Each structure stands twice: as C-alpha cells, then as structure tokens.
Amino acid sequence: MTKRRRSDRRLTRRQLARREREHRSQQLMTWIAIAVGAIIVTILAYGSISEILKARSPAATIGEAAIMAKDFRARQSYERWMTELEMYQYQNYITELSSQQLTVTSTEEDAATAAETTVDGGTDALIQQLQYTLSNLEQQLSPDFTNLYAGQVLDAMIEEELIRQEAAKRDLTVTEDEIQQSIELTVGYDRTAATSTLTDTAVAAFDQLDFDEVYEQFDINVLKIARFSEEDFRAMITAQLLAQKLIEELMRDMEMVRDQVELTVFTVDTEDEGLVLKSRMNDDGEDPAVLIEEFAQDDNPTSAGYDLPWLPQGYLDVQFGIEMEKAAFNTPLGKATQPILGTGEQYFVIYVKGHEERELSEDLLAQAEQQAYEGWLSATKGELVKYLDWEAAIVTE
After folding, report:
1. pTM for this structure?
2. Residue 329's domain is classified under what CATH number?
C-alpha cells in the first residue's frame, strides 16, 4: 500500500514573514475603509443635521417671535410661483391680442384700414404695456434680483407679524366670514355669481360646492407645488385683513376737517417777471385761468401755470418748501403772493383761489392713511425687528 504524501509542508521563515505582512496590510486596508466610511457617514449626518438646524434657525426676530428659515423658504416658493403664474397669464394675454391683430389684418381688404383700426383700438399700446409688465416680472425672478426679491418677501412676513402683534394689543379681530371672502377672492372665486333663482339654502350649497372645486384646484396647482401650507396661507390672508383694521384704528383720532387752500401756481424765470404777474392779478384783476392759457401758449419751457387741489398744511411744505406754504396760508383770498424763490432758481407766484375749513378729499385721506400706517410700521420695525442670517435661506428657483 502506497503511503499518502503530506500536502502541507512546513512554511519557510521568508514565507511566514510575507504572510504576516499581507495580513497586516489587509488589516490596515480594512481599518482605513472603516475610517473612511465613518467619516462619510459623519459628513452626511453633519450635513443633514446642519440643514435641519438651518431650517429651524430664525431668519429674523420680531420681539419674542421669530420667522424661521423653513417658513421663509416656503413663503419665497409661494411668492415666486405666484409671480410665475402671473407671468403666464400676461403671456397668454399678449399671445391672444397678437392673434386677434393677425386675424383682423388678414380679413380686412384694405391693409391700411386694418392698421388704422389697430391703432384706434389701442391694441398695440396695450400689448406694449403688457410686455413691459411681463418684463418687470421676469426681472424680479432673475438671478440678479434674487436677494432683493427674497428681502422683499422677508419684509412682508415681518410686516404681517408686526400687524398680528399690534392687533393683539388693540384687540383687533377679523371674522371667519371676512377671512373666507378674502380667500375666495384670492383663489379667483366669486360668490355673487350663483344664480338668483335658487333658494337661500340651495344657493349656499351651490356656492360651497363651486368654491370647494376652485379651492381644490388652487391647493393642487399652487399651495402643494410651492409647498406652502394652508395654515400659512390662511395666516397671510388674516394679516392682510388685520392691516386694514389697524389703519382704521390709527386714523380714529385724526382730524377729518382741516384748514385748506386751493391755489393756482405760476413759475417764472426772474423776480421781475413774478412782480409783473402779481400786479396783473392783484391790480389789474386778470383771471388766473386766462393766464394759465397764456403760459401754455408761451414757447418758454421753464414758465408754467397750473391749478392745485384743496390742500391742508403740511402738503405744500413737502413739495414746494415752508416759505410757499406760509405765503399760501397767509395771503388773502383772491390775491397773489410776492415772487418766492424756489430750489430750482425759479420764482413762484401763488394765487389763492380758496381758503376754508373743509373735509379731507378721498385722495388726501388715502395719503393720510398711508402716512399714518408707514409711520407706525417704521417706528415699530426699528424697535422690534432684528435681521439674522436670512440670506442663507434664499430660494433661487
């Protein structure tokens, strides 16, 4: 019987040393792989944690309240998407009007008549106006205006929070129906369009059905795409309504009846011209309205005459300076002032057409409301608002 030959031979010292080196090398590679893996996991984890922390960090604080980065991003996405939808609408208007132009031109036998019809109808002017608006909207979303656009969005959010805080102090509230109506207008639903032949109960059910359909489309095509929650949308609408309540509150103690003047203003190049003009009205009794026509026909581009509406104190000062306002309120009714040197090296002569206590006009009332609101907003904003690292949360698309 043949003896079995041993398959394992004793390893030499050199072979043992080489095996040991290979073993150590393999161990080293394993540890390096583990270390690299651990580093990658750490980096990814740090990145995720960092993003979470950034999202939870405030972009700005308003007193004790804060606007978080995630909410700021969501609002930017909503505003950018709404701007894009507005651009889409304007583009559709332009396309439709351009198509109508082509149709008119192709159906008219006389091309000149078609061109005249287009000009008379103002279609070209309207298209240009729409294109200008569209260009402005596109510019707002351009990369060059990203920071400016985001800053405006943040300021709007800050303003809304300031309104909520002030409304809470003054016990100002809005009703659910007011919020509902505002939401309906925002999403493009008109509750008055329901047929009047239905009973009140049927109309209410019909309205709700239609609104639910419209709102569902708004939710799908706007809120969900922009990742803007219904809660945030409703809070935005509520703040807008509270703003009007706040303006009414700010105007509550404002005097509606004030001392006002109605004026005709003339500008001339020299003091001597002003003295002659004053004499023509005060001494010769010439009608300021006739003098306005005379100035309109004059070739001198630096002289002019025009009427101003009823204005209370404080308005002339801003536009013309305190000296003109003093002269206007201290000159007798039906008389013209001495020539007053303006800031542009021209002289002004003011004729006082009327002077009495009267209520503010709608335009003046709107200006007063805006001034009161902006004054409150500026003061409160300066006191409570702190801008933080908001640029880290800017949305670019």
Report:
1. 0.71
2. 3.10.50.40
